[in-house]
Amino acid sequence: MEYYFSDKMKALKPSAIREIFKSMGDPEMISFAAGNPSPLSFPVDDLARIGADIFKNSSTAALQYSVTEGYPPLRAAVEARMKEKFNIGREGDMTIITSGGQQGMELCCKSLCNEGDVVICEDPSFIGSLNSFRSCGAKPVGIPLGDDGIDPEELDRALSTTENVKLVYLIPTFQNPAGLTTSLEKRKAIYDVCVKHGVIIIEDNPYGELRFAGEDIPTIKSMDTEGIVVYCSSFSKILSAGMRVGFVCGPEAILQKMVVAKQGEDVHTNIFFQMLCHRFMTECDLDGHIAGIRKIYREKCGLMLSTLDRCMPKEIKYTRPEGGLFIWVTLPECINMQAFVKKALENKVAVVPGNAFLCDENGTVNAFRINYSTPSDEDIVRGCEILGRVAREML
Amino acid sequence: MEYYFSDKMKALKPSAIREIFKSMGDPEMISFAAGNPSPLSFPVDDLARIGADIFKNSSTAALQYSVTEGYPPLRAAVEARMKEKFNIGREGDMTIITSGGQQGMELCCKSLCNEGDVVICEDPSFIGSLNSFRSCGAKPVGIPLGDDGIDPEELDRALSTTENVKLVYLIPTFQNPAGLTTSLEKRKAIYDVCVKHGVIIIEDNPYGELRFAGEDIPTIKSMDTEGIVVYCSSFSKILSAGMRVGFVCGPEAILQKMVVAKQGEDVHTNIFFQMLCHRFMTECDLDGHIAGIRKIYREKCGLMLSTLDRCMPKEIKYTRPEGGLFIWVTLPECINMQAFVKKALENKVAVVPGNAFLCDENGTVNAFRINYSTPSDEDIVRGCEILGRVAREML
Prior knowledge:
Two copies of one chain form a homodimer.
Chain A: H1 7-10, H2 16-22, E1 30-31, H3 44-57, H4 59-63, H5 72-86, E2 93-98, H6 101-112, E3 118-123, H7 127-135, E4 139-144, H8 152-161, E5 165-170, H9 184-197, E6 200-204, E7 229-234, E8 246-251, H10 252-265, H11 271-283, H12 286-311, E9 317-318, E10 326-330, H13 337-346, E11 349-350, E12 352-353, E13 367-371, H14 377-394
Parallel strand pairs in A: 1-11, 3-4, 3-5, 5-6, 6-7
Antiparallel strand pairs in A: 2-8, 7-8, 9-10, 10-13, 12-13
Helix pairs in contact in A: 3-11, 5-11, 6-7, 6-10, 8-9, 12-14
């Protein structure tokens, strides 16, 4: 039997990150390739205690079918927190629960994009979202990401000259993969450009609560007087990634359509863990818990940066994140990135080649992504030393 | 701001069933409209005990990101059980875990169908799947469901004359909404017709383990020597619907594509509950537990049928299921179904109007669906008595 696939899925390959994971069986391998939160960030004791209570006192509700929009008390708690922390949500907005932050992107694209429509993205951008757009038949088109975000004038030009742009996808805070944050000035300008063109922005903010240095910058959604921003985030980096609980806040008309799309995908998100999130938010010290996670990542990021500072030849440049999980390392022209990544792997350090994050799948970039949240402190030091040695050998 | 939606989502409305749920706030309402498993079918004590142990001894794995294909030990356990119970799975097949059975349908359609492609369905069929196909841009086209399944010759004609048919979607066992089961003879003939036309079958079997009368009939997937059947099922009706854990077994090439699509939707299914399912399957008496559920539904279905027999005028016809959750009630021509449903609702009994399950959204059918798994025994009797009274008044 020969199988024929849909145009949108035909060419889509599993993400490069996943493929690297498969070579991770080697126990000697140091992985800087993951994007996993530290297991230390899971509040296991509280989750276990509340979980036991849910089984004991609310088992029917926790195991039965539920509504697609999400567990109402959790929606309310999330709404209140978004408002308080990020000034998000106003008249005409609605909040729903999704199966991880990723589902928010996919549902939004499915609801708004026909096949062949364009999603403007930062270049590089999060491969999971790019593939999600591609799987909906939409085409990611990149605008280069500068140190403080994409250039609003370039966005204006792209929106003026590109046909069928339905979405602008941004990770303005601690971007994945670059670890960079878009400045307030650029956020305002980007928002204005999108209002001018009547284009919807997806603001993806999974790392927003993970700031360990510098000052918070207002979210784009907090400026959204016109109802053009769909804001996606999740509990993956602050409670548990494996439970797959995320949320979206955006204009009700769009969110209602996303609910219909979600109904056709998974009916609703695991309700037991929605109840668990709600109980944790209302009974435990979520802010204190997040402060603890920030401390872990401040130390891990600091350790990785100081080791890179010590071991890396000065020709190798890297971002200095104020939060999030990732550092983006740019090689000088004289070192070929693919050769570097291969040699690093041979020396038992896995990193993600930068081209995996490009909108143009055949594009090239002389950079790679490394992660400090997953590896142990010892592995961070050893891994960076190895990367430094590989760099010196290739210079 | 005016919002423009994708062609595929533009016309799609929330399912009629969901809309009926919204009017269910009334505590006096007797709902025969749901498709919920009985809460008595949830093995709460075992789930609570194993859940506590997972939090205690495997918390990192249970709360961290996991692989898209599903938790390997659960995949293996599901594979073994499908083989044993339904003779499903052979060389070239692969099993993955999905976020409920519904996601299997959606991922398969997304992987195989372009916008405008056709999915042949039983008419009536499960509205959740129909909407799932529609949300992928595919068009459900119905073949009338007879007492023992669709007519293979009619399927042959449809496949010969309809362009761009990519899938045939069937619920051969205890069909939703009709409660009917396709005969072995027709299963074989349908399979042969699909092989002849090289068209993929989705066999949806969420109720297969819920037989409480008669003899098991081999699944279509068990006949699949050619690798044309994608088999979807779930734990929703045997362990918990709210946890959203389903599974798919089918040709590896198709399933690999579905994995890529799943990665773009929710990355993976809630891993804690995947581990819970696996532990329940291997440590508890799943067969014994299912035997208990069958007993509950045998009694509830029997009670509903005997009450209908007692209260319904003989002009009203209804199916007599041997398993599953639903009875399909057909009215005589002299009673208008929509008027009947409205009057039943006024008398505090909710049923689902049959046209909700039609492939042609503007089609009409003089029938409605009722469910016996969700209401209490008392409500089953009272509700059927009310339906009988309404019917007599309208005759």
